[in-house]
Structure formats: structure tokens, C-alpha cells
Amino acid sequence: MAQPHQARKRFGQHFLVDDSVIDGIVRAIAPRPSDRMVEIGPGLSALTQPLLRTLEHLTVIELDRDLAARLRRQHPESRLSIIESDVLQVDFSALGEGLRIVGNLPYNISSPLMFHLLPFAGQVKDQHFMLQKEMVDRMVAKPSTSAYGRLSVMLQARYRMTALFDVPPDAFDPPPRVVSAIVRMAPLPEGRPVPRDHAMFEKVVAKAFEQRRKMLRRSLGDWAKDLDWQALGIEPTARAEDLSVAQYMALADALTPVESH
């Protein structure tokens, strides 16, 4: 008889065990047989099993080799493909188009993973993740709120973000010390507003939020003098959290011709 798997702290493992929460997540995802779905961190198959009841095939990404071996014993290759890797090293462009990505994510890699997935958004249909509620709050935050920051701007520039529902600690084994939440991320269509220079957009957003308590005319440093604040319709006394995604794109576009490094 197989030994029960002990959650490994270094992998940030908290296994989902509440059937009603699992059912709620699967209903939110609404898988169809032919979906090209990728599950990050399948763990003990809490989501894997119910997804496979509908899907013809599922690809999973698992770092823990013991869990990967367990999955191989439980599921034939014809139904389940296993990528045994750190998800931050996975090239999602190799997995095809129309991807539906799901996962109960380790909290310690949540933010890096969001940025890792950004360049592949054009191949993605949607993403459903379980994350720390505080992180989800930041991802969906509106301007002029304390949760609104660099993560909010960068993700909302590329996805339509929806917080679905909260998940209490006792839905996991071992229970985390925080409340979790489910978020849906649907990539915005090709006709969405985009900055002229995405690298410049990234720099402006990062620089503004480095010193979020300062007025933009100070936090943007030498860039501030190159901006026609009135033409942009932005007060130079505004702070980073006051600007919408569209206003950050306008700032970046105004600076793009004079960016020299």
C-alpha cells in the first residue's frame, strides 16, 4: 500500500481536500472534452481527477518527482502527459494554442509565475488559479485603492480579471495561515489598447510604484520634465495608485520617443 504523501514546505504544498470547493472550481472552469488544458501543480489529483472525468487529455506540470511518479502510476499516458519541471522554466509556447491553464499555485511563486505567463497570453484562452486572497485582491484592484499596484496594472493591461470566490484555510491539508481565492484571467483580444513600446511601459509602471507614496513628478525622476502633463490629462501631483492602466500607457507612449537607454 502506498505511503501517504507528506506535504513539503519547500514546495509550498497545501493540498485541497474539500469536495465542495473542488466542485466549485471545476464548475467555474467548465471543462469540455476537447479542451487543451494544462494544470500547474496537480499534487494529489484533487483537481486532476474531476477534470479527467470530462477531458479527453490533460497535461500537468509537477516539480515534486514523488508526486509525478504517483501520477504516472494512476493515469495512462494516453490521458495524462506529465511535464516534470519547475513551472517557471516551462516554455508554454511549445504546448500549443488555445490553452486553458489551471492550478492551485504555491504562494511563494505566485507573482513570478504571473509575469512568466504574460508573454504566452496570446496562446491562452483562459486561466483559473487558486492563490492567496491578498494576491487576488491586488490582481483585480482598481485605481485609488491601497491594493492597486504594479501587479494590478501589468496584468489588467493584458487580461480581463475576475475574482470568483474565497476558499477558507480548512479546505486544505495542511491548512495555510491565510484565506485563498479563485481568480479567472481571460486574455484581452487583439484589438485591445497596447503601448507603443511594451518595455517602456514596464519601466514606467515599475518606476512609478517603486516610491508609490511620492507624487509622480518626483517618483518618475528625470522623465517628469519630458512630459506634457496637461496634454496627458494627468496631474503631476498624482501618485502611482491614482492612474488607470490607460493613463500608464499614455505616459509610456509620451516617453517612448525620448527614451534613450
UniProtKB/TrEMBL annotation:
Protein name: Ribosomal RNA small subunit methyltransferase A
Reactions performed catalytically: adenosine(1518)/adenosine(1519) in 16S rRNA + 4 S-adenosyl-L-methionine = N(6)-dimethyladenosine(1518)/N(6)-dimethyladenosine(1519) in 16S rRNA + 4 S-adenosyl-L-homocysteine + 4 H(+)
Annotated transmembrane regions: none
Gene Ontology MF annotations: 16S rRNA (adenine(1518)-N(6)/adenine(1519)-N(6))-dimethyltransferase activity; RNA binding
Residues given in the record as S-adenosyl-L-methionine binding sites: 14, 16, 41, 62, 86, 104
Residue ranges of domain Ribosomal RNA adenine methylase transferase N-terminal in the record: 21-189
UniProt-listed InterPro entries: KsgA/Erm (IPR001737), rRNA_Ade_diMease-like_C (IPR023165), rRNA_Ade_Mease_Trfase_CS (IPR020596), rRNA_Ade_methylase_Trfase_N (IPR020598), rRNA_adenine_dimethylase (IPR011530), SAM-dependent_MTases_sf (IPR029063)
